[in-house]
């Protein structure tokens, strides 16, 4: 096959069909299987029972309400940070940006656990400070407001990132022209910057809304104790009371989440349509506002907000890991490292979970690297309707909540594979395949943008000199896109390491992931062990983000999300 | 490229070693993580040739997982060590359990195991009342929890997530003086059942709630570690589950599974449970620290057959009272 060139094209003939095959397996097959299960359940009349279930409607209601409130909170925080850190002369932007994006990289159930430890009568931190609420005070976070607040914190970085890329492209000339004509800063902001940044705000809101509807870790830890179920936690509890009807029921529930998510994206699409603010004369320089005296207000405010978003929950988590038993205040006398010892050296589950999460994350990142380099190459070279359709299909699983993807793959692999008679269900492979499907789009994006920057002339020259496809791949393409590919590997690795929603449904003996291990430890009453494991994971995430930061100097602009 | 291929090779090795670790014996258990690990460690120390992989979750969730696996044609578990005999009786009737006559059974009360050897009780776990030491009332009877002092301050596990909680509800519901009316009174007093016993322990020890219905060993053990909690055996008596062990008929490792059953029933295995703070089921064993004398603990009776028959109805009644799903 090597060197085989189709007439008039630089691609080997097998390349595109191969990519179509991969997309069929990772996107089309599972979604089709879900649709079939849903329709079958509809046809068998199980629907009326499901639709008559009040639990379904209250879960749908809570899913939408918490997602809308959470999106509003993330918009407020995310927009404020995006404007302040992109457009003003505030100091320490690099560090602030890094810190602000951190919550997005931390697993949601760790965030939830940390906030629970930080507030309410249970807080070891508040007890140590002697300001814990009295006996019998309800934990305020076990409520719709609590869930929405944490959605807001978790997803504010998404809004920030979506808005920031637009703000960076704002023309300095326009702002300067307005200034010269005597417009005040406020007027410039209202009449120029605000309208131009609206598409970014809308995109951020849509991403945040979709992520809220699919979140599992936060409503699992904050909602279940107060009997507040969202659709993802309802699916999880349906699996916890498995009956012969379960597969059909969860297929319908998944379809409802998918509809809500798609509706969110459709609203975004509608809002953005007809809004075409073309920006002329890109100067390349970002517009900046001189904060002047206001910086004495904004700078401390930003640090206070970051303290409550990051430092306080982390110390609460640490305090929760260091107390000898639940309800004991943390003092120098009571401090105990037993939880860390138990988690690190005694529990086989933690070790298994670390091995599983790391190898799943590495496996997903490496498999996707191979597939994405080939797909990005093929998709950027071919610009026809088919390749656009394929790109769209790759995006779908990523935009659907993880729990829907998990249900899809359970349906595909529940029965042993025909012919081979091998069962994937209950093995680590089903989690790997679901990860590949869900994170394909994450991995593809940086690589595609690198290919767009690549001059095709280089490759053409090599081809004319008689270099075959693999030769060109090795000598020209791979070295040139290597930095972007490296960044994509690390991003996928980070996201897959912290995954909970997909693995929460797919895990089995010996295939627990870190996310599942934390959830189960907390669920069995060992919240000190759950806290200790969470502390270790937060440290691991920060180390990986720092690695990416070190690599950032050698990467094309925009590949590391939080860098300008 | 070279680095990539080295990385890929390492990764492949990692994945292979993960599947190679897929061990001789898989245990599904409802014990808390630390106890499950200790039990497995004790067994592996006594049987170095067997490696055990274990999964922990509440009894109903474990059963759901198992059922989904059976449905998918791939049951992973070999051995079950879960809350109650009622659940294992159901599996036995469905023909899912292996009959094995353990030689250790001789040291057990005949009422504590299945005569055909499908399952054996390993310990006695009672459900009583725990309270936070800063609570205003010291409860002595189940009925105290319906008093105004406990309004909105009671935590209880849900029978939907805990096997022990289901047996507890069924036991109290069949006591003349209590019955389902008692659960209605609790609901009227603001109790919301949620999660398993771990969740109850957490909310009472932390002071979110003042009182809890909970299994004995958790608060007794936490009190020893310094947590501000007390446990009482109410005057009407306590309900009890016996955390039986059983082997699945589909096991591919029957020999190792039998060794596991023998171990948890053996004196050594029972001492392990004792050390963790459980009342051992084997005759002639001591009681763990912090427990009153064995004959002072009054265990309320439950008829396993009847409980099994009524389980679905009882769950519906319970859900009806509390409006939970």
TrEMBL record, chain A:
Record protein name field: ABC transporter permease protein
Highest rank taxon of the organism: Bacteria
GO CC annotation, single: plasma membrane
Alphabetized UniProt keyword annotations: Cell inner membrane, Cell membrane, Membrane, Transmembrane, Transmembrane helix, Transport
Pfam families: BPD_transp_1 (PF00528)
Annotated ABC transmembrane type-1 domain residues: 60-268, 354-548
Classification lineage: Bacteria, Pseudomonadati, Pseudomonadota, Alphaproteobacteria, Hyphomicrobiales
Naturally occurring in which organism (per UniProt): Rhizobium gallicum bv. gallicum R602sp
SUPFAM superfamilies given in the database record: MetI-like
Residues in coiled coil: none
From TrEMBL, chain B:
Gene Ontology terms: biological process: thiamine transport
InterPro entries, A to Z: Ferric-bd, SBP
Keywords for the protein's UniProt record, in alphabetical order: Iron, Metal-binding, Periplasm, Signal
One protein family per Pfam: SBP_bac_8
Keyword Metal-binding found: yes
GO cellular component: outer membrane-bounded periplasmic space
Molecular-function GO terms, alphabetical: metal ion binding; thiamine binding; thiamine pyrophosphate binding
Signal sequence interval, chain numbering: 1-22
Binding site residues for Fe cation: 217
Protein name listed in UniProt: ABC transporter substrate-binding protein
Lineage of producing organism: Bacteria, Pseudomonadati, Pseudomonadota, Alphaproteobacteria, Hyphomicrobiales
């Amino acid at each position: 096959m090597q060197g085989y060139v189709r007439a008039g094209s630089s691609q080997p003939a097998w390349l595109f069909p191969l990519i179509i095959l991969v997309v069929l397996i990772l996107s089309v097959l599972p979604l089709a299987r879900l649709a079939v299960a849903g329709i079958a359940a509809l046809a068998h009349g199980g629907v009326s029972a499901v639709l008559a279930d009040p639990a379904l409607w209250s879960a749908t209601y809570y899913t939408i309400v918490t997602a809308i409130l959470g999106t509003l909170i993330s918009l407020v925080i995310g927009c404020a940070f995006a404007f302040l850190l992109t457009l003003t002369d505030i100091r320490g932007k690099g560090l602030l940006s890094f810190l602000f994006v951190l919550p997005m990289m931390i697993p949601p159930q760790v965030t939830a656990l940390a906030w629970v430890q930080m507030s309410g009568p249970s807080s070891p931190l508040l007890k140590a400070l002697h300001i814990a609420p009295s006996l019998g005070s309800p934990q305020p976070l076990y409520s719709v407001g609590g869930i929405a607040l944490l959605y807001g914190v978790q997803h504010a970085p998404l809004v920030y990132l979506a808005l920031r890329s637009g703000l960076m492209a704002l023309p300095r000339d326009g702002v300067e022209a307005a200034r010269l004509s005597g417009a005040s800063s406020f007027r410039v902001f209202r009449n120029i910057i605000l309208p131009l940044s609206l598409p970014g705000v809308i995109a951020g809101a849509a991403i945040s809304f979709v992520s809220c509807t699919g979140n599992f870790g936060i409503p699992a830890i904050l909602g279940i104790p107060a009997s507040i179920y969202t659709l993802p936690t309802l699916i999880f509890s349906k699996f916890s009371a498995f009956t012969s009807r379960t597969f059909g029921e969860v297929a319908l529930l998944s379809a409802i989440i998918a509809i809500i998510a798609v509706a969110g994206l459709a609203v975004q699409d509608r809002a953005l349509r007809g809004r075409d603010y073309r920006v002329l004369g890109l100067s390349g320089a970002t517009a900046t506002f001189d904060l002047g005296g206001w910086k004495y207000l904004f700078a401390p405010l930003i640090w206070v907000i970051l303290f409550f978003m990051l430092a306080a929950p982390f110390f609460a988590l640490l305090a929760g890991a260091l107390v000898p038993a639940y309800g004991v205040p943390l003092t120098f006398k009571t401090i105990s490292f037993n939880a860390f010892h138990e988690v690190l050296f005694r529990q086989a589950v933690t070790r298994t979970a670390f091995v599983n999460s790391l190898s799943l994350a590495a496996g997903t990142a490496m498999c996707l690297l191979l597939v994405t380099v080939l797909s990005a190459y093929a998709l950027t070279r071919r610009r026809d309707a088919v390749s656009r359709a394929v790109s769209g299909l790759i995006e779908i699983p990523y935009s659907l909540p993880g729990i829907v993807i998990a249900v899809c793959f359970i349906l595909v692999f529940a029965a042993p594979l025909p012919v081979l008679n091998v069962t994937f269900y209950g093995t680590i492979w089903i989690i790997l395949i679901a990860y590949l499907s869900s994170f394909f789009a994450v991995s593809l994006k940086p690589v595609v943008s690198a290919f767009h920057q690549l001059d095709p002339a280089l490759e053409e020259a090599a081809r004319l000199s008689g270099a075959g496809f693999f030769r060109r791949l090795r000598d020209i393409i791979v070295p040139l896109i290597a930095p972007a590919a490296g960044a994509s590997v690390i991003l996928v690795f980070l996201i897959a390491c912290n995954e909970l929603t997909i693995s929460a449904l797919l895990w089995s003996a010996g295939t627990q992931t870190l996310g599942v291990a934390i959830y189960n430890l907390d669920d069995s009453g060992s919240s000190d062990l759950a806290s200790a494991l969470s502390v270790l994971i937060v440290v691991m995430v920060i180390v990986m983000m720092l690695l990416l930061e070190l690599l950032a100097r050698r990467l094309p602009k925009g590949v590391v999300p939080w860098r300008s | 490229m070279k680095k990539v291929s080295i990385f890929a090779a390492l990764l492949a090795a990692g994945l292979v070693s993960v599947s190679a670790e897929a061990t001789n014996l898989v245990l599904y258990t409802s014990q808390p993580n630390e106890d499950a690990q200790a039990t497995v460690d004790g067994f592996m120390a006594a049987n170095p040739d067997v490696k055990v992989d274990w999964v922990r979750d509440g009894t109903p969730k474990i059963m759901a997982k198992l059922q989904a696996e059976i449905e998918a044609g791939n049951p992973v578990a070999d051995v079950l060590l879960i809350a109650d005999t009622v659940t294992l009786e159901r599996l036995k009737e469905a023909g899912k359990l292996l009959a094995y006559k353990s030689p250790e059974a001789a040291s057990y009360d005949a009422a504590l195991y299945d005569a055909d050897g499908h399952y054996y009780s390993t310990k006695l776990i009672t459900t009583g009342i725990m309270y936070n030491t800063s609570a205003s009332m010291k409860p002595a009877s189940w009925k105290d929890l319906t008093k105004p002092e406990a309004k909105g301050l009671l935590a209880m596990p849900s029978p939907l997530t805990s096997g022990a909680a289901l047996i507890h509800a069924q036991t109290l519901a069949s006591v003349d003086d209590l019955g389902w009316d008692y659960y209605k009174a609790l609901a009227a007093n603001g109790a919301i059942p949620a999660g398993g016993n771990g969740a109850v322990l957490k909310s009472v020890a932390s002071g979110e709630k003042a009182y809890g219905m909970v299994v004995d060993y958790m608060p007794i053990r936490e009190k020893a570690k310094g947590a501000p909690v007390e446990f009482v055996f109410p005057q009407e008596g306590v309900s009890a589950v016996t955390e039986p062990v059983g082997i699945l008929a589909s096991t591919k490792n029957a020999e190792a599974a039998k060794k596991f059953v023998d171990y948890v029933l053996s004196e050594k295995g029972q001492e392990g449970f004792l050390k963790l703070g459980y009342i051992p089921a084997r005759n002639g064993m001591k009681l763990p620290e912090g427990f009153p004398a064995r004959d002072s603990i009054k265990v309320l009776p439950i008829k396993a057959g009847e409980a099994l028959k009524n389980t679905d109805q009882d769950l519906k009644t319970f859900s009806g009272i509390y409006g939970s799903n």
